[in-house]
Predict the structure.
Amino acid sequence: ICTVVVFFFVCLTVGSLIWVNKAMASINEEPMHPYKMQVDSFYTPIKSLNRYVTEKLDTVKSNFLENMRLATEQNDQLYTLNVTYDTYETDKYLSFVFYIEIYTGGAHPNLEIWTVVWDKTNELIVTNESFTKEFLEKVSEKVRADLLMNPKITSITWLFEGTKPVMENFKSFVYTNDGLLFFFSPYQVAPYSSGLFEVLVSY
């Protein structure tokens, strides 16, 4: 038995490129592996951006369903996939941060942070591949100084490993009017119980 529930929420802001239709949820109640998927729908007037995001979300959903088919433990457990996102917009950039939460058994869900940045002027997706070594070192220094003041940081070694000046550590970011906002998923700089971290690096 599969139940599908659709909620429509339209967001049209003057001067904004965003048109959002969210969210779609589906509940599967098959005896062996019950699961629930809820994924915020995504749409903008930019076709290539829509295609890029849709391909990623389709892959996330496909992988989740495949894991359900392969699951052999906790047959009475409700497995869940929940995808939401926030939007940031400046004169030059349109940015999205996706929160991909998956629960397939165990002590808690897993949370993946995925960000997408669209360059309005050049009409292309921006990644951290444009970050220079010098820029990464400055960002690393600023982020470490900020997080060292956070009481949720429990291990200096863990923090320094997760903020080394390498691209992998700073792949999740968005542009805001105040600066670059970097995101750190659970386990990157601290235990899962400490949650998600965000650090703003001013322009």
In short: The chain has a mean pLDDT of 85. Strands lie at 2-6, 24-28, 35-39, 79-89, 93-103, 110-119, 124-126, 173-175, 179-184, 197-202. DSSP finds three helices and ten strands in the chain.
